[in-house]
Design a protein that fits this description.
The chain is an alpha/beta fold. The chain has 9 helices and 15 strands. The chain is globular and about 60 Å long.
Length: 371
Amino acid sequence: MFGHTKKVRYAVVGGGQISQQAFMPGVARTNNSELVALVTGYPVKADKLAKLYGIKAWTYEQYAELLASGEIDAVYIATPNFLHMQYAVPALEAGIHVLLEKPMASSVAEAEQILAAQKTRGAKLMIAYRLHHEPGTVEMITRARNNEFGELRSFVSAFAQNVAEANSRGHNGYWGGPVPDMGTYPLNAVRNLFGLEPIAVHAVGTKTPDRGFNFHDTVAVTLRFPGERVAQFTVSYATASSEFFELVGTKASIHASPSFMFGPKIGIRYVEKTSEGSKEHKFDPVEQFGNETQYFSDCILNDAHPEADGEEGLLDMRVLAAVERSLETGETVTLEPMTRSRHVEPDQALKLKPAKEPGEDDMISIIPQSA
């Protein structure tokens, strides 16, 4: 299937900002993956990106044909969230492996349909949690699980940016808004740091008066976990940039910032405080998109089950859906207790060197995300 090259052949589905800025340049840093196709509805993108990368462009109408063509082994899906299921399900049913951007879909029912499709042909499904392969994040999760910070008690985080209403994220309702888009990061971080699933969710949202979003643009979420643990995070589309989290245990606290972003100059960093003083832990910037692609391709080539699988995506989805319910009703939403079967392993951390990112002016037919 893979010829002599042993490289997994990827098609990118959706030529938006994340594909152009991060995924497409990042693939070149791997030694087991290659970009061979792009699916886009924009003729200008099709033409220019196909030339730039020496790949073939397909329209969305040709998607079924692409899946059956024998020219690809896997797809990377980076469409708006509400279109994820539409492209993930046919790929999985065609036996094509799927690397799917988070959040997994725009409802729990859709996420469950994607999982069901994955089981039909045994193609692999990985949700694109790039930080599961970033050395600083993996170190913090591993140390937390090894009780190095003592019994974990609380987690607090903010992740905020100023998003242009004209960007696709600015007008697709709750599932295009800050909770699924940005809240997935602190949510996924705390689930992995605690190694537990939340049992109650409460959310409060506000709308900035002079902004034109069709959702709460700033949302504060409180989560209760088993073992008397609590977590809080705030996300926003209508403020200056902010990103950090603080994890507090009985022996130590850690403050991580930068904690969620990527880029050639962004290295994850955390300060650990104990009764003996504080110590900074710094990590070099890595190619986060190349890392996750390298890992997923390894899973495909060696028939291994990826850690950030559909179950991991679904466990975040059910919390995001509970936040949506809480915002609608003003009530605390209880979740049935769940346990997960997989955990982030220390050897998932990879250190590919960052690819050069195109600037916003270099990207083709993009409405910039930043306001």
